[in-house]
Design brief:
Number of helices: 4
Protein name: Leucine-rich repeat-containing protein 57
Strand content: 5-15%
CATH architecture of the largest domain: Alpha-Beta Horseshoe
Largest sheet: 9 strands, parallel
Number of domains: 2
Order of helices and strands: HEEEEEEEEEEHEHH
Number of strands: 11
Keywords: Leucine-rich repeat, Repeat
Organism: Indicator maculatus
Shape: elongated
Radius of gyration: 20 Å
CATH topology of the largest domain: Leucine-rich repeat, LRR (right-handed beta-alpha superhelix)
Oligomer: single chain
Helix content: 10-25%
CATH class of the largest domain: Alpha Beta
Amino acid sequence: MGNSALKAHLETAQKTGVFQLTGKGLTEFPEDLQKLTTNLRTIDLSNNKIEVLPPLIGKFSFLKSLALNNNKLTALPEELCKLKKLETLHLNSNHLRQLPAAFGQLSALKTLSLSGNQLRTVPTQLCGLRHLDVVDLSKNQIQNVPDTVGELQAIELNLNQNQISQISVQISHCPRLKVLRLEENCLELSMLPQSILSDSQISLLAVEGNLFEIKKLRELEGYDKYMERFTATKKKFA
C-alpha cells in the first residue's frame, strides 16, 4: 500500500475520528497514526498481519474502540492499559496467551472479544472491570474456571469451544451474569455447579456439546428455579 493511500486515510481519519484499514496485509501498526493521537475515537486494523502492537498505542487517550481481529499478535503492551476511555476491544483470532498485568485499569471497557486465541485460563484482570457487559473467550484453551470468576461484573460470558472440565462454584455469585455459554467443552454433569441453577442470576445457560445429555440437566436440583428465570427473561424480550 502506497504512502499516498495512507495519507488519504489519515486525512479522512482526522476529520471523522475513525481510522479503518482492514485486509491490506499490513505487517506493522502504522507509525503515522501518532499524528492523530487526540483525534481518533476508533481504530480498526483487522485482517492484517500485524505481529506487535507498539507502546505508542497508550497515547490515544480518547480512543473508544480498537479492533485488531485476525492478526498475528502474541502479546499486548502494558501501555494499552492507559486507554481510560476504551469501551470496545476486539482481538479475535490472534495468538494471545495472556493479558497485560494492568489490564484491569481499562475502566471504561464494556465489550471484550478474545475468541480464537491461546488463553489457558479466565484472566483474573477482568474482575476489576466494573462496566464490562460482554466477554467472549470462546475458542481458547481454557481448562478450568477459577474462584476469582465470582467477582466478574459481566452480563454475558462466552466460554464455548474450550477444554473446560471444572468450574468454580463462585460463578454463581457473579452479580450481573445473565448469560453463560459453555457449549462444546469437556464438562461432566457432576462438574457443573448446581448453584448456577438454584442460586444465581443466570437466565440463559448454554451447555450443549459436553459430556452429558442435555435432558439430564432437567433432573438436577434447582432446575425449576433456573427455568423460572429463563421464562421470565424470555417474556421480557418477546
